[in-house]
Specification:
heterodimer; A: mainly beta; 4-stranded antiparallel sheet; globular; B: mainly beta; 9 strands; about 0% helix
Chain lengths: ~120, ~110
């Protein structure tokens, strides 16, 4: 596809269930980012990948959150035992690293609602 | 991560120029200055970036102070569609764990009046 694709676009889950959010970055982009945005708030950095490795996981809120990236492409953000405070829009972005063409492209996000 | 400081909000009238300031006094020599904006109910979108020289593109201009401790995003003629949150971000081009990292602050909420 031409842009960053996230799925699902909306997810409603019961408290305590696990959820997986998927991000398909733009082909060839080495950097991949995950953010979350609660209603009316700014973007909270979660984690980013250089290739398949994550040099900075400092933004993950708790050990219930994990992310992986395989083949330098698709990434999955997993939230275990979801809580109501996990409700937010989860945004993924990708970019090249280095050089001049380093603009990041964002997906439309996954709106997660924990009931 | 090097920090940026922006005003919480600004207002403009349609078809007038808008100058959005950003302070980044702790910028390092390998940090690029990036600007993104987020329209209501959308993901952020790239606006412009620069290192030392002023930059122009179809969306905006970026004026960078000679000492690089501040920059200004210039929208030459604001439209209603420019109403958004504007983020100024420093992105390092050096190696290490912060290489390529993008960290968003609170940004400036721009309101454009008809």
């Amino acid at each position: 596809g031409a842009g960053v694709s996230q799925s699902p676009s909306n997810k409603v889950t019961e408290k305590g269930k696990d959820v997986e959010l998927r991000c398909d970055p733009i082909s060839g982009h080495t950097a991949l980012y995950w953010y979350r945005q609660s209603l009316g708030q700014g973007l909270e950095f979660l984690i980013y990948f250089q290739g398949n490795s994550a040099p900075d996981k400092s933004g993950l809120p708790s050990d219930r959150f994990s992310a992986e990236r395989t083949g330098g492409s698709v990434s999955t953000l997993t939230i275990q035992r979801t809580q109501q405070e996990d409700s937010a829009v989860y945004l993924c972005a990708s970019s090249f690293i280095g050089g001049e063409n380093t603009e990041a492209f964002f997906g439309q996000g996954t709106r997660l609602t924990v009931v | 991560d090097a920090k940026t400081t922006q005003p919480n909000s600004m207002e403009s009238n349609e078809e007038e120029p808008v100058h959005l300031p950003c302070n980044h006094s702790t910028i390092s020599g390998t940090d690029y200055i990036h600007w993104y904006r987020q329209l209501p109910s959308q993901g952020p979108e790239y606006v412009i970036h620069g290192l030392t020289s002023n930059v122009n593109n179809r969306m905006a201009s970026l004026a960078i102070a000679e000492d690089r401790k501040s920059s200004t995003l210039i929208l030459h003629r604001a439209t209603l569609r420019d109403a958004a949150v504007y983020y100024c971000i420093l992105r390092t081009n050096a190696g290490g764990t912060s290489y390529g990292k993008l960290t968003f602050g609170q940004g400036t909420i721009l309101t454009v009046h008809p």
